[in-house]
Design a protein that fits this description.
The complex is a heterotrimer of chains A (166), B (391) and C (103). By secondary structure, chain A is mainly α. Chain A contains 6 helices and no strands. In chain A, helix 1 packs antiparallel against helix 2 and helix 2 runs antiparallel to helix 3. In chain B, a hairpin with a 2-residue loop joins strand 1 and strand 2. In chain B, helix 6 packs antiparallel against helix 7, helix 7 packs antiparallel against helix 9 and helix 10 packs across helix 11. Chain B starts with a helix and ends in a 13-residue tail after the last helix. Chain B has 391 residues and is mainly alpha-helical. By secondary structure, chain C is an all-alpha fold. Chain C is built from 3 helices and no strands. In chain C, helix 1 runs antiparallel to helix 2 and helix 2 packs antiparallel against helix 3. The radius of gyration of chain C is 17 Å and the shape is elongated. Classes of the chains: A mainly alpha (166), B mainly alpha (391), C mainly alpha (103). Chains in contact: A-B, A-C.
C-alpha cells in the first residue's frame, strides 16, 4: 500500500463514518462532502481524470448542496432529536457488518484480486467523447431522457400545491 | 532578446531546479510553480481594491480614498492592518467549527482554479487534459463554502443571504459552462494550453481569437454575464448588497475572516476573468501581429486588468437586479441563448469559410437579442435624463 | 504498490458504512445519503477494475461510472423531492413515525 492510498483511504472512511454517525444532519452532509472528495482523489490516483473531476462537480457541487437545502427546509428549530438511530438499529448494524465480512472474506480469498497494476493507460477526454458518441450513444440518449424526466418530476413532486386551493 | 524576456520565469525555475537534489525535485517543482501565483494574485487583489474604490468614486462623482499616501495608494495596506487587528467576534450560538472552516474553504477553492490558467507561453502550473472541467469543478466547491458560512452563523439574515446566493450561483453555473462548451467544440480539446494554441495565428494583423467570431462574441458576452453573477458582483449582488441584506451570508464575520471572504470573492473573479481570457481572448497572445515582441505574461495581465476595469465600470453603472429578475434572466434568456450559440457554432464549423457563414451565424445569433430588447422596450417609455453635477 | 485487493476492500468498507447508515438512521435524508454512499462505493469498484483489468482501452469501467454518477444525481434529486412532499404531509422526517399509509 502506498502512503498516498493509505492517507486517502483513511480520509474517505473517516468522512463517511462521520457522515453516518454524527448527530447534526448538516454536519453529516459536510463530512459526506469530505468522503466524496476522498473518493474523487482516489479516482484521480487511479488515472481516471474525467470521472474524478465529474465526481467533484456533480457530487460535491450539486448533490451535497441538494441535501443541505433539503435538510434546511425540513429542519424544525429547537427540536433536537434525542435519538438519532432508529429503534431497530441493532439489526441494521448486524446486517451491515455481515455484508462487510462476507465481501472482505471473498476478496481476500480470491486469487485474481491480488494483482498489481499494468502500465498506466492514457485516456484522453477525446477518447471518452468518441466512445460516448459511437459505442455508447444509446445509453447517452437514455441519460438525456432520464435527466429531463427527473428534472420535471422533481419539480412537480416538490411543488407547493397549496396555491391551487386558494 | 524578447524571447529571453518572455521565458524569463521558465528559465529561472529551470535554473533553480538544477540546484535541488533529485529526491526533492517533484515537491520543489510544485512549490516553485505555485508560489509565484500565490504571491501575484493576492497582490493584484490589493491593487484591485484600490482601483475599485477610486474608480467607483469617480463614476459616482466623488474622489475615492486620497488620504493614505499619494492618490490613496497605501489604502490596501491600511485595510489589511485594519482587518488583521479587528476583534474576531463569533456569535454565541454559532457552530464554531463550521464557522471557522467556511472562509478557509472559500479561499482554498478560489485558489485551486488558478492551476490550469496559462499565464504565459509555457507558463501553466499543470497542463491537465481536462483543464476546463477541473476549473469548473473547483468553482462548484465555492457554493458549499457559501452555504457553510450562511448556516453556521445561526442568523436569519445570513441564512437567507446564503440561500439566495447559492440559488443564484447554481442558476448561473449552467450558462457559464455552456458558454465555454462552444469554445471546447471548436478547439477540440478541454486542455487550456491547447485552447490558447488554437488562437495563436494572425490573418493580416488581426488575431484568431475566438471572440472575433459570431459564436465567440456571444459566448464571451454570456460568459461575462454569468461570471458576474457567479462572483456575486453588481448588478447581481442582491445576496450581499449593503442596502439589501447588509452583507448577506458573511454578516456575522469580522476582522480577518471577513477579509478572507473578500479575498476569496475577488480571487474567484480573477480566476473567472482569467478563464474568459483563455477561452475567448486568446490567453497570452498579442492583439495585433506587430506587438508580439511584448512578453506573453504582460499581455495576460493587461487583459486581466482590462476585464477587472470593465467589472468595476459595470458595478458603478448598472442598478441591482431583483432576485426574480435575476433568476428569470438566467433561465429564460441566458440559457436558451447559450444553447442557440452552440447551434451556431455547429453551423459555423460545417459551413465553408467565407462571408456567407458570417452573415448566417450573425443573423441566427442577433435575432433573439433584437426580439428580447424590443420586448423590454415595449413596456417602458424612455425619457431624456438631466444631470446635476456636484462641484 | 497498491494491489487491487486494497481498493476492493476499501470499496466494500464504504459500501457497508453506507448500508449501515441507510438501515439505522432516523432522518429520511440521511438514509438517502447512505444510498448515495453505496453508489459511490460501487463506482470506485468499477474504476478499480477498469484500471487493473485486462483491457483498459475499452473504457468500459469509465463509461459505467459516468452513467452511474448521472443516474445517482437524478435519483438524489427525485428522492429529495419525494422527502419534501412527505414532510409537507406528515410534518416530520423521522422514518419511525412515518409508519402508516393512511393519508
Amino acid at each position: 500500500m502506498t502512503a498516498a492510498f493509505f492517507i486517502l483511504a483513511a480520509l474517505t472512511v473517516a468522512g463517511t463514518a462521520a457522515a453516518m454517525g454524527l448527530r447534526n444532519a448538516v454536519h453529516c452532509v459536510l463530512a459526506l462532502t469530505v468522503g466524496f472528495a476522498g473518493v474523487a482523489a482516489l479516482y484521480l490516483q487511479l488515472g481516471a481524470q474525467f470521472v474524478g473531476l465529474t465526481q467533484i462537480m456533480v457530487y460535491v457541487g450539486a448533490v451535497a448542496i441538494l441535501a443541505v437545502f433539503a435538510i434546511m427546509m425540513t429542519h424544525k428549530p429547537g427540536e433536537d432529536q434525542p435519538r438519532i438511530f432508529s429503534s431497530h438499529w441493532v439489526v441494521g448494524g448486524v446486517v451491515a457488518a455481515a455484508v462487510f465480512s462476507v465481501l472482505a472474506w471473498a476478496i481476500s480469498s480470491s486469487g485474481t484480486a491480488n494483482q498489481f497494476p499494468p502500465p498506466e493507460p492514457s485516456v484522453t477526454v477525446l477518447a471518452i467523447g468518441d466512445s460516448l458518441m459511437h459505442t455508447y450513444v444509446l445509453p447517452l440518449e437514455l441519460m438525456g431522457l432520464l435527466l429531463t424526466a427527473a428534472l420535471i418530476g422533481a419539480v412537480v413532486i416538490a411543488m407547493d400545491r397549496r396555491e391551487e386551493t386558494k | 532578446m524578447t524571447q529571453m524576456l518572455d521565458q524569463i520565469f521558465v528559465t529561472a525555475k529551470l535554473w533553480l531546479m538544477g540546484y535541488i537534489p533529485a529526491a526533492a525535485k517533484p515537491l520543489a517543482s510544485a512549490i516553485l510553480s505555485v508560489v509565484p501565483v500565490l504571491i501575484a494574485f493576492p497582490l493584484l487583489f490589493a491593487i484591485t481594491t484600490w482601483l475599485e474604490r477610486k474608480g467607483l468614486g469617480r463614476i459616482q462623482n466623488r474622489l475615492g480614498p486620497n488620504r493614505t499616501g499619494p492618490f490613496g495608494l497605501l489604502q490596501p495596506i491600511a485595510d489589511a492592518i485594519k482587518s488583521l487587528t479587528k476583534e474576531d467576534i463569533v456569535p454565541l450560538r454559532a457552530d464554531h467549527a463550521v464557522h471557522f472552516l467556511a472562509p478557509v474553504l472559500l479561499v482554498l477553492a478560489s485558489f485551486l482554479g488558478y492551476a490550469v490558467l496559462p499565464i504565459g507561453r509555457n507558463m501553466v502550473i499543470v497542463n491537465l487534459d481536462a483543464g476546463v472541467l477541473y476549473f469548473f469543478a473547483a468553482g462548484s466547491v465555492v457554493e458549499l463554502a457559501v452555504f457553510m458560512a450562511g448556516w453556521s452563523s445561526r442568523s436569519k439574515y445570513s441564512l437567507l443571504g446564503a440561500m439566495r446566493a447559492i440559488a443564484q450561483m447554481i442558476s448561473y453555473e449552467v450558462p457559464l459552462v455552456l458558454a465555454s462548451v462552444v469554445v471546447i467544440m471548436q478547439a477540440g480539446s478541454l486542455s487550456t494550453v491547447a485552447i490558447v494554441e488554437k488562437q495563436t495565428g494572425y490573418t493580416g494583423i488581426f488575431p484568431h481569437w475566438f471572440v472575433f467570431t459570431p459564436w465567440g462574441f456571444v459566448g464571451f458576452a454570456l460568459f461575462m454575464i454569468a461570471a458576474t453573477a457567479e462572483s456575486n458582483r453588481s448588478p447581481f449582488d442582491l445576496p450581499e448588497g449593503e442596502s439589501e441584506i447588509i452583507a448577506g451570508y458573511y454578516i456575522e464575520y469580522s476582522g480577518f475572516k471577513f477579509a478572507l471572504f473578500f479575498l476569496g470573492e475577488y480571487l474567484g473573479m480573477f480566476a473567472t476573468s482569467g478563464m474568459a481570457i483563455t477561452l475567448f481572448l486568446g490567453g497570452w497572445t498579442a492583439p495585433v501581429s506587430f506587438l508580439t515582441w511584448i512578453p506573453s505574461y504582460i499581455w495576460f495581465f493587461t487583459k486581466l486588468v482590462t476585464l477587472i476595469a470593465v467589472f468595476i465600470w459595470i458595478r458603478g453603472t448598472l442598478p441591482r437586479l431583483r432576485m426574480d429578475q435575476l433568476m428569470n434572466l438566467a433561465w429564460e434568456f441566458i440559457l436558451p441563448m447559450a444553447l442557440l450559440n452552440m447551434l451556431v457554432a455547429g453551423v459555423w464549423h460545417f459551413m465553408p469559410s467565407g462571408i456567407l457563414r458570417w452573415l448566417v451565424c450573425t443573423a441566427i445569433v442577433a435575432t433573439p437579442c433584437v426580439l428580447f430588447s424590443a420586448r423590454l422596450k415595449r413596456k417602458k417609455r424612455l425619457q431624456v435624463r438631466t444631470y446635476i453635477f456636484a462641484d | 504498490m497498491t494491489s487491487l485487493q486494497n481498493y476492493l476492500i476499501l470499496s466494500s468498507l464504504l459500501f457497508s458504512i453506507g448500508l449501515a447508515g441507510a438501515l439505522t438512521r432516523r432522518n429520511a435524508i440521511l438514509v438517502l445519503i447512505g444510498i448515495e454512499l453505496m453508489l459511490n462505493a460501487a463506482n470506485l469498484n468499477f474504476i478499480a477494475f477498469w484500471r487493473y483489468g485486462p483491457n483498459p482501452s475499452h473504457l468500459t469501467g469509465i463509461m459505467f461510472a459516468i452513467f452511474s454518477i448521472t443516474v445517482a444525481a437524478a435519483e438524489a434529486a427525485v428522492g429529495l423531492g419525494i422527502i419534501l412532499a412527505a414532510y409537507r404531509h406528515s410534518r416530520t422526517t423521522d422514518l419511525d413515525q412515518m409508519n402508516s399509509l393512511k393519508g
